[in-house]
């Protein structure tokens, strides 16, 4: 790890990603949005959601009966390159995501396994997601 990226940063980055999905699955959408950087982008279902307000509006539009479960595995945090001139510290969190939902209302079902990357930036409020993206891993796209 770089001298400016320590164990506390490593764990805080992992916690940001894990907290995002816990808040999503427990329908605490304000907490999801708060984990996004001010100019953060979530590439979700082919649409770029830019900023916390767009994330919050999209999640609030979800059906009330929709339930999800996101299982994060194989998580690893990679520090970004050292930033010159006082630029914020950055990191990437790589992981697999098993996504379940009750879309057919017959109980939870596996929707997909995704290969994901969260790009994070260190802000005065803590680590925030600057870009969230994934691609379907299984079944293959």
TrEMBL record:
- Please list the residue ranges annotated as the SnoaL-like domain: 9-131
Name of the molecule in the record = Nuclear transport factor 2 family protein
Q: Which organism is it from?
A: Candidimonas humi
């Amino acid at each position: 790890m770089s001298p400016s990226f320590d164990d506390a940063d490593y764990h805080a980055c992992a916690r940001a990603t894990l907290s995002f999905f816990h808040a999503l699955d427990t329908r605490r959408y304000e907490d999801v949005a708060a984990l996004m950087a001010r100019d953060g982008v979530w590439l979700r279902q082919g649409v770029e959601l830019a900023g916390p307000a767009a994330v919050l509006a999209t999640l609030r539009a979800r059906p009330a009966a929709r339930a999800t479960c996101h299982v994060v595995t194989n998580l690893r945090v990679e520090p970004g390159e050292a930033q010159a001139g006082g630029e914020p510290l950055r990191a990437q969190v790589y992981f697999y995501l098993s996504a379940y939902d009750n879309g057919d209302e017959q109980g939870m079902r596996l929707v997909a396994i995704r290969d994901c990357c969260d790009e994070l930036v260190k802000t005065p409020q803590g680590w925030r997601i600057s870009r969230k993206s994934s691609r379907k891993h299984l079944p293959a796209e």
